[in-house]
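Dataset card, provenance and construction

Sequences and ligand SMILES were collected as paired inputs. For each pair, a complete structure of the chain with the small molecule in place was predicted and serialized as structure tokens. The example below shows a pair involving zinc ion. Curators did not alter the output after generation; any descriptive sentences attached to a record were derived from the structure itself.
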Amino acid sequence: MPKKKKSGVKRYGPRYGRKPRKEVQEIEEKKKKSYRCPMCTKKSLKWKSFGVWECDSCGLQLAGGAWTPLTETGEASLRAVRRAKMGKEIE
Ligand SMILES: [Zn+2]
């Protein structure tokens, strides 16, 4: 008899303890949320697979953080790229 798939952290049952399960739940909540798409600015950017995000509206695919489209490191590197581009335009 096929088992009914439990949703969320319940599928782990009592295993792994309270803290890891809580962390997994927080990550999964972040993952399920929709984020603002940088292309069409609609809130339709969704988690597709590990580090890959896809926009439902314009079909844009982007590589981002594993569980959020933009990590702090990602944002820092974006700023660096932007700064480098601006420098070129001034030249
Ligand atoms: Zn989009």
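Derived descriptions for this record:
DSSP finds two helices and three strands in the chain.
The mean pLDDT is 85.
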